[in-house]
Design goal:
By secondary structure, the chain is mainly α. The chain has helices at residues 17-27, 32-39, 43-57, 62-71, and strands spanning 8-9, 12-13. It has a two-stranded antiparallel ribbon with strand order 1-2. Helix 1 packs across helix 3 and helix 2 packs across helix 3.
Length: 95
């Protein structure tokens, strides 16, 4: 009866690539508006992603999310707890 839904086992939660990208940007200190501008998506879409991420990670706010991300190895800060995250194209890469 295993599934890829919001179940959490030993701190491991299934987040989409986009959600992981947003977690990385939250950890970098960006606001939802700044994230929306960087990813070229609406702020409301970012708000929805953040809400879904908080639910999936059972965290109540951005600080708890940041702590969860560090503890689960989803982000690194200043070369500490570093992990490999997907590379995302920048808007400059458009031809």
């Amino acid at each position: 009866m295993a599934s890829d839904d919001a179940s959490s086992v030993a701190g491991q939660t299934s987040l989409s690539d986009r959600e992981l990208q947003i977690v990385e940007l939250v950890a970098a200190g960006l606001t939802n508006q700044e994230i929306s501008e960087k990813l070229e998506i609406s702020k409301r879409t970012v708000d929805n992603h953040i809400s879904n991420i908080l639910t999936k990670t059972a965290t109540g706010n951005r600080v708890e999310l940041f702590r969860w991300a560090l503890q689960s190895g989803k982000v690194c800060v200043d070369e500490v707890n570093c992990c490999v995250l997907p590379e995302w194209p920048t808007s400059d890469a458009k031809a």
